[in-house]
Amino acid sequence: MSSLPLWLEPVERLVEAGGAVLVVLAVVAVLVFAMAMERWWYYRITWRVARRELLHRWAARSDHASWSARTLRQVWAEALVAKLRKPLPWLKLLVALCPLLGLLGTVTGMISVFDSLSLSETHQARAMADGVARATLPTLTGMAIAVVGLLFISRLEHVIRREDQRLHDRLARALEESDA
To answer: Do residues 105 and 137 touch, judged by C-beta distance below 8 A?
Structure first.
């Protein structure tokens, strides 16, 4: 009978399956997916409202052709796109950490397998194979999280480039419509 509460049993199983590094990888995975959801929410709701407000602010200006007006438009657009790009470095850092954490879990698992084999004196091949299989689980987990994270980063970078271009196109179109 376990003394841990029911909601902590998955954590206990993670530690039994691959060591404490799997818990750290689970936390990193939760952070990566939380950041992904936050970016999706930001893009779907906040970004579109902010872009619309910027277009209205730009269209409301009387001067669109002077150097200072074009510079101001460029600064406004870059500031808005920077908000879309803001969590990208943190996301890249977390995704880069996943394979390294997995490797750390494998190395510590292998050390514990070899340590227990040296103390047992039986040198059973089956026990060693089980230990090696358990030790490689963190690497597999880290690689899986990193692959999913890389797919999300690639998609987010695509969206940022596309929205940057769309924003500049819409600002230019607002200028043409205000001149007509």
So the answer is: yes
| DSSP state letter for 86 | T
**Residue 172 token pair:** 């230019």
- In the chain, DSSP finds a helix count (H) and a strand count (E) of 6, 0
Cα dist. 23→3, 31, 113 in Å?
19, 12, 19
Taking the model in full, what pTM does it have? 0.79
The two tokens of residue 86 are: 């803001």
Residue 113, pLDDT above cutoff 60? yes
Q: How sure is the predictor about 2, in pLDDT bands with cuts at 50, 70 and 90? A: low
For 163, list phi and psi in degrees, rounded to 5: -70, -35
First to last CA, the chain: 78
How far apart CA 173 and CA 111 sit, in angstroms, is 63
104 vs 97: CA distance, rounded Å:
10
